[in-house]
Amino acid sequence: MIYVKYFLSIITNKILSFGCKLTKHIFKKDGSVTPGYFATKLAPDILDKLIYPKTIIGITGSSGKGSTTSLVAHILEGNGYKVIWNKNGSNLYNAAATLLLNNTNPFTKKINADILLLELDESFIKKIFNKVKLTHLVVTNITRDQPARNGHPDIIFDKIASSIDKNTHLIINIDDPIVARFSNIHKGKITTYSIAKYKTDIKNPLSHTIDAAYCPLCNNALKYKFYHYGHLGDYTCPNCKFGHGHADYLAKDIDLDKQFMTINRAIVHLNKNVFFCCYYTLAAYALCKEIGLSSHDIQTFLNDKVMPSKRMKEYHLLHRPLEMIESKNENALSYLQTINYIKSERGKKTIILGFDNVSRRYSYNDLSWLYDVDFELLNDSSIDKIFCIGRFRYDVYNRLLYAGIPKEKLILVDDVKNVLNLVKKKSKGKIYTMVCFDMTAIIKKLLEGGKYENN
Amino acid sequence: MKIIKIAHLYYDLMNLYGESGNILALTTALKRQGVKFTVSYLTKKDKIDFGKYDIFYMGMGSEKNQAVVLEDIKRYKTEIKKNIKKKVFIMTGNSYELFGKRIDDIEALDIFNFESKTVRDRIVKEQVYKTYILDYPVIGFQNRSSVNDNEENHLFEVIDGNADNNKSRYEGIHINNFYGTYTIGPLLIRNPHLLDKIIKDYFETNKYPYKEIKNTPDYQAYHAYIKNFNIKKEN
Questions:
Q1: Residue B101 Cα, gap to closest chain A Cα (Å)
Q2: Which domain holds residue B162?
Q3: Is the entire prediction scored with pTM above 0.90?
Q4: Domain residue ranges of chain A, discontinuous segments joined by +
Q5: Hey, of A156, A363, A366, A401, which one would you mutate to test binding to chain B, going by the most B CBs within 10 A of its CB?
Q6: Nearest to B11 among A208, A214, A397 (CB)
Q7: Pick the CATH number of A314-448 from 3.40.190.10, 3.40.50.300, 3.40.50.2000, 3.90.190.20
């Protein structure tokens, strides 16, 4: 009887997934969550009962887990492995269940893959891998991120720490002192990665809001040689000697214009000209090397058969290029990456900024994170105008004024449908949208309405 | 008129949830009043002279950082007691718990008569309050893992949201020029009426001339929120 339960659970998942696929256009659901929800209702312990592949990799952290996962999948699949991975970035429990059960034989309960690779939300590692444990876990960074759901970095650390099995091989970014703390508590194997000093590093943090000014072990102020950004950099604790130390995989000689860097002695290509790309390339390289691939096998799929960059399609608005960059609300370092990227671009720029909803996961109106984002950096002569859109446009506008951006550069847009007309009339230079998911969809629709697109 | 000295206490430990925005709000409001001011950023390694400053601000921190600050700030207990009635203290998030008798089992500054306790489930919610010092509702957010048992001198009454603890209807504390609340926002940016009231009272006490300025973008944002979310003045 008990076997029937698991069989039904797997079959239900497959049928619902098929149904979702067929009705995608009607219900506007991609079916990444619902099937797993019902399947695990039928058999709550189904994920513990599957027969897993020998290698089970998790990738977690406050940001960069999606990019790292995609790149690892690209390298592994390129090298002939059958990889099951969450392509669409759905990283919560029901989504993981949907993915796993869709790739499971209902008779043998065996997952049909050589390697299981999952981008994992920090809060769900324990629930998904309750009995079966990860063989490898990459931790990219721990920063303030969706505080209404995650609380703060200490809580995120504790959640990850409590879900790590002693036999899991950790691959961690030691530029982040919060992540480096795993070296002090994990009894199993640890591999570390780091980026050496780079020309855009800073001696002092941009603001007082960094997440790890103090030693996570003894609470004394950390001494930093440099910061890459946020609290990521090279640090030591003068009191207890907790520190960055030597990394197993060190990235250096970064050239973002030519898009390459070296990791230990291997030259690797970067598929984007942004600093952040160095981190996910480094993490992917370190992980693939640790699971047994040769440098050559990895380099082939980083350097020759390059993974196409996920950057969104570039649009045009009356011959002016328009790039849509999706920023994650409630994640100051995600915004910082976008701001730094826009700043590093040449020429005059116009920015569209704003949101209707703070989060797609909950309906809280927590706006405090706006003051953790270093919008001060946009107070730059290359920025021509910033258009504030969405339901919280006054709060965004006010934040930008507090960041010291002159009033003349800021435009409040009451009707979002009018934003492109206003941009066309009132601003100069390349256009960047620095908005969250809801506004990306609206602007895309306006652009794809045909009226504005001429490429 | 003298230079107003602001101390941002434990700025690098009690710095969650955009709390530095409160300092931006304070300094911008003082600029609008045309007065001179300084901001000193003080933390664990410093020797804080509580007699030297006019306005003290501290924000919300993680539970661990709150404990670090509690251990450190106790060395100033006598000095804080000496200055508590004379100076302005604006304490947001869990920082105001430091001024109670205890936080869980650890002795705190023992200036006000309440104890704080860690709770299992975090309190995460929008807040709407009324306050006897204003005719306008106060808005904000809370993200905390503690409650307290304060029974007197409340700053806010709950219209919609959370009180000090789940049995109370009141939140925060207001005694003389001490303002304490769990509310983040940043509180002083999202509530320009409250910020102006605090500054106005401070100016009046010190006999400084005060200008009413109501057409700032903070007010625009506040009124837009009140309208968008249909915020009521009463419950």
A1: 24
A2: 4-228
A3: yes
A4: 2-194+259-304, 314-448
A5: A366
A6: A208
A7: 3.90.190.20
Best probe of the B interface among A152, A157, A159, A409, by most B CBs < 10 A, is A152
Tens-digit pLDDT profile for residues B88-140:
999 999 999 999 999 999 999 999 999 999 999 999 999 999 999 999 999 99
Each residue's pLDDT tens digit, A336-355: 989 999 998 999 999 999 99
Whether the complex's predicted ipTM surpasses the cut of 0.90: yes
Instruction: Determine whether the interchain pair B17/A151 forms a contact, defined as Cβ–Cβ distance below 8 Å.
Output: no
Contact A144, A89 (CB under 8 A): no
Q: Which chain B residue lies closest to A394 (C-alpha atoms)?
A: B221
Q: What is the pLDDT of residues A78-101, one digit of tens each?
A: 999 999 998 877 778 888 888 888
What residues of A are in contact with residue B63 (Cβ under 8 Å)?
154
Architecture per CATH, A2-194+259-304: 3-Layer(aba) Sandwich (3.40)
pLDDT, position A453: 44
Interface of A with B in 316-375 (CB under 8 A): 364-372
Which chain B positions have a beta carbon within 8 Å of A151's beta carbon? 122, 143, 145
- DSSP assignments along chain B, one per residue: -PPEEEEEETTTTS--TTTTHHHHHHHHHHHHTT--EEEEEE-TTS---TTT-SEEEE----HHHHHHHHHHHGGGHHHHHHHTTTSEEEEEGGGGGGGSSEETTEE----SS-EEEEEEEEEEEEEEEE-TT-SS-EEEEEEEEEEE---SS-SEEEEES--SSTT-SEE-EEETTEEEES-BS-HHHH-HHHHHHHHHHHHHHTT--------SHHHHHHHHHHHHTT--S--
CB-CB under 8 Å, A372 with B141: no
Q: How many CB pairs under 8 A join A and B?
A: 106
Tell if the CB–CB gap between B62 and A371 is shorter than 8 Å. no
